[in-house]
Amino acid sequence: EICSGDWSSDVCSSDLLQLENGRKLEISAPKNSDKNRYIRSLSYNGKNYTKNYFDHFELLKGAKLIYDMDSRPNKTRGVKTNDFPYSLSDKMQEQQK
């Protein structure tokens, strides 16, 4: 079902955003449900994506995001220093020393 706005709903599994520049941002989470609320993995334009953020300018080029949802958190995804936004990366490196 295509939704616009409320991704907390258990019926929302995909959304298509038409960007002002004419490109499209497609977001899909086929297994999204009240039970499956955690991200197991994420595909960004067909490639595995482990970062916990998106670059605004990259998204403006248009993208296809496919979330693989699960009922348990994936504690190994998005935990490397490069997976954190730049503002948090330095802080994380300091804490690990």
What does this protein structure show overall?
The chain has 97 residues and is α+β, with helices and mostly antiparallel strands. The chain contains two helices and five strands, in the order ββββαβα. It has helices spanning 56-59, 86-96; strands at 14-18, 24-28, 38-44, 47-48, 63-70. Strands 1-2-5-3-4 form a five-stranded mixed β-sheet, with no helix packed on it. A hairpin with a 2-residue loop joins β3 and β4. It is flat and about 45 Å long. The N and C termini lie far apart (46 Å).
- How big is the Rg? 15 Å
Percentage of residues assigned to helices:
10-25%
Strand content: 25-35%
| Biggest sheet architecture | 5 strands, mixed
Low-confidence stretches: none
Query: Going across the major beta sheet, what is the strand order?
Result: 1-2-5-3-4
Strand elements, count:
5
Envelope shape: flat
Average pLDDT number: 84
Which structural category fits the helices and strands? alpha+beta
Distance between the termini: 46 Å
**Order of SSEs, N→C?**
EEEEHEH
Total helix count?
Answer: 2
What's the topology here?
Blueprint: E1 14-18, E2 24-28, E3 38-44, E4 47-48, H1 56-59, E5 63-70, H2 86-96
Parallel strand pairs: 2-5
Antiparallel strand pairs: 1-2, 3-4, 3-5
Summarize the structure.
With 97 residues, this protein is of the alpha+beta class.
Keywords:
2 helices; flat; 5 strands; five-stranded mixed β-sheet
